[in-house]
Amino acid sequence: MFQALRYRLLLSYLLVLASILSVFAIAVRVVFTQSLTQQLTAQLRLLGQGAAANAVFNQKQGRIIVGKGFSTPELIARERAIQWFDLQGHLITQQGKAVLALPLPASTEDSVQIQASQPRVQGVTLPILDKNDRQPVGYVRVSKSLAEQDERLQRLDLGLGGGIFVALILSGVGGIWLTRQAMLPIEENFRRLKQFTADASHELRSPLMAIKTNVSVALKYPNGMRPADAEKFEAIASATTQMVCLTEDLLLLVRTDQTPGRDRETVNLASMLADLIQLYQSPAAVKQVELKSELSTPIDLLGDASQLNRLFTNLIINALDYTPPGGTVEIQASQVGQTIFVKVQDTGIGIAPENLERIFHRFWRGDQSRTYSQGGSGLGLAIAQAIAQSHNGQISVTSELGQGSCFTVQFKA
Ligand SMILES: Nc1ncnc2c1ncn2[C@@H]1O[C@H](COP(=O)(O)OP(=O)(O)O)[C@@H](O)[C@H]1O
Ligand SMILES: [Mg+2]
């Protein structure tokens, strides 16, 4: 029980941490990418201004003449390229290899282009201005391969991913310690509470037994007793029996929690259920409830026979208790692969949806049910669930008010 709680705490802690770290990593990545792009744009713009100045418009020839101010090997070495265009966007000449395979942008005012397909290239387009009237006479586009930037980003991704991974592992280890420390006092209190319940139930046994024996002795010789006194003794006997059952139930509940895996043997569930059905055939007949079964034999389960017997007894008694005369209670057992299913289905009063979780709580009893049940203390299903869990099983329930309920116990064979 605490193990599951600890895992859940740890998992929530790691999930929150992972989300925070991811947001942080994404923010770092975005800022870093933006700053790299801006840096590159500034460099390219500087180069572009040089390249624009290197071209002059020859009035006589009516075209742009490009000077020889740039060394192509250097441009290639730095993965850069320069393209000169006339006003119509026709390429005049180019130098370098990392050219953009894209047409000029529609708006040529200092615009940045990034070629998404491989090889990735970033380009900046600037106008070439006429020296006299400062009118554009052509365009120059400088570009640079993004291979180096992509490599840097890849290294950043690797660093961030690795960092998050290591941080999560370290936090996981720290978290295991933290959750253990946080749960220690809770576990200790819970253990003490259980011990108290066990001790109290145990201590109540002897005085209850003394009352029970004395009352039954007194009732054995009712001759000198007034009839009213005999009735009171009967009431005391009945209340004592209830209290004995209650203390036994509490003790069983604490012990089931404490010692899972004790007294394990191979139990044939099908024959155990067949015996129980036979046992409850006459109480069912008295209540005018049909008790039937559908058992596929044999179904073997490693477990504590007396506890399993108690689990199914509780479910069958509930089904009989909460089913009005004329109803049916059906018990089915089957094995599908490695999973064993035992279903106890009734056509009884049903359980309201909001109570479906609560019925397994200790001492919880449905209000309506009090009219149907005589001796129940509200521990029956809590005991059944504790037994199922100590056998690595679980109980689920589906129910509809006024239609009936179906309790399904699942075990791993
Ligand atoms: N088969 C059933 N049909 C309808 N209600 C049920 C059924 N089984 C259990 N319940 C509801 O769950 C409550 C708790 O059951 P249980 O723990 O066995 O306590 P008890 O039977 O002593 O009241 C019951 O009081 C009843 O309201
Ligand atoms: Mg019950």
Which labels suit this protein?
alpha+beta; Beta-Lactamase; Helix Hairpins; Heat Shock Protein 90; 3 domains; five-stranded antiparallel sheet; 8 helices; 22% strand; binds adenosine-5'-diphosphate; binds magnesium ion
Q: What does this protein look like?
A:
The chain has helices at 2-53, 72-77, 147-220, 227-258, 269-279, 281-286, 305-321, 380-390; strands at residues 55-58, 63-66, 80-86, 91-96, 111-115, 121-129, 136-145, 265-268, 290-295, 300-303, 328-336, 339-346, 394-400, 404-412. The longest helix is centred in the middle third of the chain and has 74 residues, at 147-220. The two termini are 21 Å apart. The chain has three domains: 2-145, Beta-Lactamase (2-Layer Sandwich); 181-258, Signal transduction histidine kinase, dimerisation/phosphotransfer (DHp) domain (Helix Hairpins, Orthogonal Bundle), CATH 1.10.287; 265-412, Heat Shock Protein 90 (2-Layer Sandwich), CATH 3.30.565.10. Helix content is 51%, strand content 22%. The strands form four sheets. Strands 4-3-7-6-5 form a five-stranded antiparallel beta sheet. A five-stranded mixed beta sheet has the order 9-11-12-14-13. It is of the alpha+beta class and 413 residues long. The structure holds adenosine-5'-diphosphate (ADP) and magnesium ion. Magnesium ion is lined by residues 314, 317-318, 376, 380.
CATH architectural arrangement of the largest domain: 2-Layer Sandwich
The residue ranges in which pLDDT falls below 50 over 5 or more consecutive positions are: none
Q: Give the class from helix and strand content and strand pairing.
A: alpha+beta
> How many DSSP E strands?
14
